[in-house]
């Protein structure tokens, strides 16, 4: 069965290559953040997943599935932890058992440590949401969504 799934995914990736520029997730909301030097700050981001699609959770049910990840560029703010919502367990026709996925709107929160010697004033924290989108019939090649959040360091 795994062979059949792998073959199906390979065909899906080949067909999905035509939609390389397509994003299935959009940053719907990001706050303006005020952070104190030497402290921690939580930054919530709200992402909207295209209707009719889902993305794998950050901890998919199967090893061969690509997890959703939020990766930040090191700088004045250092990543301490990234929190994802609870995944939905959904059974699709192409899967033997339920998959752990996100759909609709999700909130991803990152806790940052602000360097004690960070320069005060406006800056940005930049990162990437890495995900693999699927619909109820097929999965598409993994995508990366660039994210940038304004931060005022005090």
Number of domains: 1
**End-to-end C-alpha gap:** 56 Å
CATH class, named: Mainly Beta
Helix amount, in percent?
Answer: under 10%
CATH superfamily: Thiol:disulfide interchange protein DsbD, N-terminal domain
Alpha-beta content class = mainly beta
The overall pLDDT, averaged over residues, is 88
| CATH topology-level fold name | Immunoglobulin-like
In terms of quaternary structure, what is this? single chain
Q: What general outline do the C-alpha atoms trace? A: elongated
Q: How much of the residues is beta strand, in percent? A: over 45%
- Flag low-confidence runs: 1-19
Structure description:
- This protein has 154 residues and is mostly beta strands.
- It has a single domain, classed as Thiol:disulfide interchange protein DsbD, N-terminal domain (Immunoglobulin-like).
- 10% of the residues lie in helices and 47% in strands.
- A hairpin with an 8-residue loop joins strand 7 and strand 8.
- Residues 1-19 have low confidence and may be disordered.
